[in-house]
Amino acid sequence: ESIPMKSLSCYNDYSSQMTCTWMEHSEAHALVGMSLYQRDNIIMENNEMLCKRQTENDLPEAPESYVHWVCHTTKENFGIGVDDTYSFKPNKILRAELNVVLFQNVQTPPPQNLSVSLMRSGDVLLTWKAADGSQGLGNALDYEVSYKREWESWEDAVSLSLSNTTLCHLRLQDLVPGSSYVARVRARLGQASGSSWPVHPQWSTEASWKTPEGGLQPRNLRCLFNGADRLTCSWEVKKAITTSVLFGLFFRATPTSAEEECSPVHEKEIPHIPYVVQSCEIPVSNSSSQSQYQVSVRAKTEEKVIEGYKNIKVLPPANVSVTGTEDQEYELRWTKHTLRYNFIKQRYQVEYWKNDQYEKVSLR
């Protein structure tokens, strides 16, 4: 559960008034505020509760890193079997969508049977079995451009092969917003030269740049199909808002099929940056070259059922008065708070003390 849902506590006077208290992380509140909704199983309509931020005077020991709220609403339906459901919704739409053509997003297995052979000349020959065949050399000088975010390893970098050009165009939409990038380039001889691939190609000096921030939306949503039975999707979200918002991955196997939710969602923190990587594996059956999945990442709606008859907080007695009697005793009277049902009994606690003295006498 998120912090707002975990901290949610609600009670009612079993007549008309409903009160809830909850809290959220102050950093998450600054980025995306949350609203509390209530519905019961009779009317089945979500009603936004009126919430007011509690002040420091009300919560003298409240930690500064949290924002505390008290919310009110009124309703008419009370009784055993009447359940109230509470839910939180962010005040911003948080989602990302992607159409995935399975066989255009294939991540083939790594090469197999890697072996090392020492030749008579002292050279080292690496041999392996490629999963998807080998590539031929080009007719002109070829370049390999590799780029990545600073925290990624070069093994996970994006690699582009270019022929007969010294330019490489990187589109902004192919880059992750708010990221620091580093790139390098190396050259290798094409087939027209008659030379073999170099054993240890050298990389150029690295160049770096930073992309602009992209807001609160889920970013870098991408899916890779293993070619058999699994589509693995990953995305990144701001670490701060994950305390209040849970993100889910939803997908359709075909445009006409019912939407399903992928589970479980795994999470991994990225060192030194305010984002976490979330991922989920979608099982694939009956795939073909025409298979296309519609994938969406969006904020999930959390709900909590609170039974009203188990969470009653009676209003304090009214019109409290004290009158003296003829035998020098005192009589304390008050007006009873009326509940909707007369068979519900109420118990009272009376406290009295002398002025300027804090020792209290309690009667029940």
UniProtKB/TrEMBL annotation:
<dbReference type="GO" id="GO:0009897">
    <property type="term" value="C:external side of plasma membrane"/>
</dbReference>
<feature type="domain" description="Fibronectin type-III">
    <location>
        <begin position="110"/>
        <end position="214"/>
    </location>
</feature>
<keyword id="KW-0812">Transmembrane</keyword>
<feature type="domain" description="Fibronectin type-III">
    <location>
        <begin position="217"/>
        <end position="328"/>
    </location>
</feature>
<keyword id="KW-0472">Membrane</keyword>
<dbReference type="Pfam" id="PF21460">
    <property type="entry name" value="IL3Rb_N"/>
</dbReference>
<dbReference type="InterPro" id="IPR036116">
    <property type="entry name" value="FN3_sf"/>
</dbReference>
<keyword id="KW-0675">Receptor</keyword>
<protein>
    <submittedName>
        <fullName>Cytokine receptor common subunit beta</fullName>
    </submittedName>
</protein>
<keyword id="KW-1015">Disulfide bond</keyword>
<keyword id="KW-1133">Transmembrane helix</keyword>
<dbReference type="GO" id="GO:0004896">
    <property type="term" value="F:cytokine receptor activity"/>
</dbReference>
<dbReference type="Pfam" id="PF00041">
    <property type="entry name" value="fn3"/>
</dbReference>
<dbReference type="InterPro" id="IPR013783">
    <property type="entry name" value="Ig-like_fold"/>
</dbReference>
<dbReference type="InterPro" id="IPR048668">
    <property type="entry name" value="IL3RB_N"/>
</dbReference>
<keyword id="KW-0325">Glycoprotein</keyword>
<keyword id="KW-0732">Signal</keyword>
<dbReference type="InterPro" id="IPR003961">
    <property type="entry name" value="FN3_dom"/>
</dbReference>
<dbReference type="Pfam" id="PF09240">
    <property type="entry name" value="IL6Ra-bind"/>
</dbReference>
<dbReference type="InterPro" id="IPR015321">
    <property type="entry name" value="TypeI_recpt_CBD"/>
</dbReference>
